Amino acid sequence: MFTNDDSIFSYTRTQAIEDGVLHLVSKEISRVYFRYPVILSNSLMTVIELSLRDKRFMNDYRGVMHDVLFMAQLAAKRGKGEAALKTRVTITGAGPKSVYDLLIVCGPGDDMQPTITIMFPEDY
């Protein structure tokens, strides 16, 4: 069996959040949809931020986060307890593409408590 002494290198979710590789959704927003912490991949967060810049689409952070988290919640409700689920979400204003495939993964966080990570399939 391996122990922490056998580890050459480790990179925690907390470090990834601090480095901007992952983005923690505030409890105020995430708790509406999930009882566990929600983390977004950097590439998904980049699309969300781009969608907010184009004022023609009148997007706001809460609205786009609602779309992402609501679709993830629907996928979780349809799922049969799988650790990884797929869904689609529409995010306008981030470029020519508006429909994005998402992967939702429930796994252990740094403290081994369940954590939901939402990302593009290619981020996995």
Describe the structure.
The chain has helices spanning about 15-20, 25-30, 40-55, 60-80; strands at about 20-25, 40, 85-90, 100-110, 115-120. By secondary structure, it is α+β, with helices and mostly antiparallel strands. The protein has one domain (about 20-124). The chain has a five-stranded mixed beta sheet. Strand 4 (about 100-110) and strand 5 (about 115-120) form a beta hairpin. The longest helix is centred in the middle third of the chain and has 18 residues, at about 60-80. It is globular, with a radius of gyration of 15 Å. About 25% of the residues are buried. The model has no long low-confidence stretch (mean pLDDT about 95).
Summarize this structure briefly.
The protein is of the alpha+beta class and 124 residues long. The chain has 4 helices and 5 strands; from the N terminus they run αβαβααβββ.
The unreliable regions are none
For the largest sheet, list the strands in their spatial order: 1-2-5-4-3
First-last Cα distance: 26 Å
Give the mean pLDDT. Answer: 93
